[in-house]
UniProtKB/TrEMBL annotation:
One of its GO terms (cellular component) is plasma membrane. It comes from Hermetia illucens. Residues 382-405 are annotated as: Disordered. Its main location: membrane. The keyword Zinc-finger does not apply. This is G-protein coupled receptors family 1 profile domain-containing protein. Pfam families: 7TM_GPCR_Srw. Residues 396-405 have a biased composition (Polar residues). It is found in: Membrane. PANTHER family: MYOSUPPRESSIN RECEPTOR 1, ISOFORM B-RELATED. The keyword Transmembrane helix applies.
Length: 405
C-alpha cells in the first residue's frame, strides 16, 4: 500500500464492495420489472383517484404523487435498459456512449431528481393535511380546501425545479477520445494506435463551472441531503408520531363512548325494558372511517421514511466527510437506493387496495368485466332506490373514507 492510499480514510470495507458486485448484475432486470409493474399500478391509481366521486383535496395530492411516481418510473425504464442490461448483451462502449445517450443520461439525472423531489414534498403536504384533519377538524375545510391544495401542489411543481438549479449547473456533456479494439472495448496500459483506433465517446461529467467552484458541488450535497431528504423525513417523523397519537386518542374516546352508550341503551317503560335509540352511531362510524383513512396514509408515510431516510443520512455524511465516503459508500449503494426508491413509488396501489374500501369499490366498478354483472344479485327496492345493489350504494358514498379527510 502506498503512502497516498494510507492517507485516504477507509469508511466502508470489503463487505460493501461484495454487496455492490453481487447486486449490480441483477439491478437492471429488477428495476425494469419494478418500473413496468409500478407504471401500471400508478396508471390505475390515477384512473381511480380522478373519478368525479373521488375528487377531494387529499385525493388531489395522491393523484399528484401517482403522476410524479409514474414519470420517475417511465424515465427509469430506458436508463435501466441502456445502463445495466445492454452491457450484459455485449454492446460495446462505442455503441452505448453516443452523444444521444449522454444527452439522455443528463436529462435523466435532472428530470428524475425534480420529479422525485416534487413527490417528496407532496408527501409532506399529505401528512400536514392529514394532521390538520385529525387534530383540527373544525379548521379542515378552511385550511385544506381544494383551492389551498391546488396552490400547494402548484408551489411544489414550481419550487422543486428551482431547488435543482445547482444540479443542472454542475454537469454537462464532454467528449473523450479513447483507444478501442476491434470489438469496441477500451485498450488500457501502453497500447499503441496500431492495436486499435481512436473513438470519440460522450460522457456526463462535472462541468467546468463546478470544477472551478467547489462550493457548487458542496451545495448539491447539502441541498440533496438536507432540503430534499433530511428536513422532509424529520417533518414526516414528527407528523407520523402525532397521527399515531391522534389515532390512539380517537380509539380511547370511541371506547368510552361505546361503553357509555351500552350502559345507557336500556330503560324501563311501563315495567318493561326497552332499548333507547342510538344517538352516536353515525358519529362512531364517521370516526372509524377517518381512522381507516389515517392508517392508510400513515402506511404511505412510514414506507416513505424507510426508503428515504437512509439516503438522506448517506448524502449528509458525503457532504461532511467528503469524496472518500462518497466513493467508498454512497456510490456502492447507489443501485440499492435506486431500487428502494422505485419500490416506494410503485407500492402505493397495494396500500390503497388493501386499506381503502372505497378505492376497491371504485376500482371494481371501473375495471370489472361487464359480463360478471349477470351473476351478481339484484337488490330489491328499498330506501336507496329501486334495483340498486350494495356496490351501487357504496359508489354513491365513495367520498366518506378516502375523500372526506
Amino acid at each position: 500500500m502506498t503512502e497516498t492510499n494510507k492517507s485516504v480514510p477507509q469508511y466502508c470495507g470489503d463487505g460493501m464492495d461484495r454487496l455492490h458486485t453481487a447486486y449490480v448484475p441483477m439491478h437492471g432486470y429488477a428495476s425494469l420489472l419494478v418500473c413496468i409493474l409500478g407504471s401500471i399500478a400508478n396508471g390505475l391509481n390515477i384512473a381511480v383517484l380522478t373519478r368525479h366521486e373521488m375528487r377531494s383535496p387529499t385525493n388531489a395530492i395522491l393523484t399528484g404523487l401517482a403522476i410524479t411516481d409514474l414519470l420517475v418510473m417511465l424515465d427509469y425504464i430506458p436508463y435501466a435498459c441502456l445502463e445495466y442490461i445492454l452491457p450484459n448483451m455485449n454492446y460495446s462502449r462505442e455503441d452505448r456512449l453516443t452523444y444521444g445517450w449522454a444527452a439522455y443520461v443528463r436529462f435523466h439525472s435532472m428530470f428524475a431528481q425534480i420529479c422525485h423531489t416534487i413527490s417528496i414534498w407532496l408527501t409532506v403536504t399529505l401528512a400536514v393535511w392529514r394532521y390538520i384533519a385529525v387534530g383540527y377538524p373544525q379548521k379542515n375545510r378552511i385550511w385544506c380546501g381544494m383551492r389551498t391544495t391546488l396552490i400547494a401542489i402548484t408551489a411544489s411543481c414550481i419550487v422543486c425545479p428551482l431547488i435543482s438549479i445547482p444540479l443542472v449547473l454542475s454537469f454537462n456533456i464532454q467528449a473523450d477520445v479513447e483507444l478501442l479494439d476491434e470489438d469496441g472495448n477500451q485498450l488500457k496500459g501502453n497500447a499503441s494506435l496500431s492495436e486499435g483506433r481512436n473513438v470519440t465517446l460522450y460522457k456526463v461529467k462535472h462541468s467546468e463551472l463546478a470544477m472551478n467552484n467547489p462550493l457548487l458541488l458542496q451545495a448539491n450535497f447539502w441541498i440533496y441531503s438536507v432540503v430534499i431528504k433530511i428536513i422532509p423525513c424529520i417533518a414526516l417523523t414528527i407528523l407520523s408520531l402525532r397521527l399515531i397519537g391522534a389515532l390512539l386518542e380517537a380509539k380511547r374516546r370511541r371506547k368510552q363512548l361505546t361503553t357509555s352508550n351500552a350502559n345507557g341503551m336500556k330503560q324501563m317503560v311501563n315495567g318493561k325494558v326497552v332499548e333507547k335509540p342510538r344517538k352516536h352511531s353515525k358519529t362512531l362510524e364517521k370516526e372509524k372511517q377517518t381512522d381507516r383513512t389515517t392508517r392508510m396514509l400513515l402506511a404511505v408515510l412510514l414506507l416513505f421514511l424507510i426508503t428515504e431516510f437512509p439516503q438522506g443520512i448517506l448524502g449528509l455524511l458525503s457532504a461532511l466527510l467528503g469524496n472518500p465516503f462518497f466513493m467508498q459508500c454512497y456510490m456502492k449503494l447507489g443501485e440499492v437506493m435506486d431500487i428502494l426508491a422505485l419500490l416506494n413509488s410503485g407500492i402505493n396501489f397495494i396500500l390503497y387496495c388493501s386499506m381503502s374500501r372505497q378505492f376497491r369499490s371504485t376500482f371494481n366498478l371501473l375495471f370489472r368485466p361487464k359480463f360478471f354483472d349477470r351473476w351478481l344479485p339484484v337488490a330489491q327496492d328499498d330506501e336507496n332506490g329501486p334495483g340498486r345493489t350494495d356496490a351501487g350504494r357504496e359508489n354513491n358514498g365513495l367520498t366518506t373514507q378516502v375523500t372526506q379527510v
